[in-house]
Structures are given as C-alpha cells and as structure tokens.
Amino acid sequence: MSENRKYNRTASLQRCAIVSPSLDTPCPARIINQSPDGLLLEMDCEIPVGDVPVNIYLADELRGTVDYESSTFLTGFIRWCKKEEGGWSGFFQAGVQLVTTAPRKDWR
C-alpha cells in the first residue's frame, strides 16, 4: 500500500507529555515515530480531536522527568485519536500535526 506522505517518518521512543486545555492534567505519552511536520503518539488517555492546539513537552530521558515550566516544547493539533486495534494494553494512538510558532521568512 502506497502512502502519500510529504516526509519520511523516523522511529522514536521519546517520552513526553501532552498539555491541552481540553485535559484536566497532562497526559504522559511516548512518540512512536516522527517527521518534520507530525508525530505518532501512544498514550493511556484519549485526546479530543480538533483545532485546539496542544503543547508537547519532551521528557529528560536521564532524569525521567518532564519540565512543564520549560519554554521548549512542540505545538500541534490532534488530527486523529483511536484505541490501538487488537491491543491488550489499553493504549490510544494519536496523530499530531505540528505547527511552528517561528515567524515566517516571507512576512516582512
């Protein structure tokens, strides 16, 4: 089956946490794969799909912690979220479309 993707995906197991106005608390997650404009996440909680931006804070792998006060995080939109098919672990998977907050070069 051919995929119509703009960029190739790279495997990852980076731990992270999702912060969203639609969630009461941050949702721990793991990045399964990534590309320059998107992420595939695995997590225990279901994330609402929509046009509400979410922030994704990467974990410090040595300490095993997430710094929610850090100014370094990824921003994106949850484009789909579903329970993992055939999974017995109860995990959900979600696709995130990343957006940049940097000014565009053509804006002058």
UniProtKB/TrEMBL annotation:
One Pfam family matching this protein: PilZ
Where in this chain does the record put each PilZ domain?
3-99
GO molecular function per UniProt: cyclic-di-GMP binding
Q: Which InterPro entries match?
A: PilZ_domain
Superkingdom, natural source = Bacteria
Protein name as catalogued: PilZ domain-containing protein
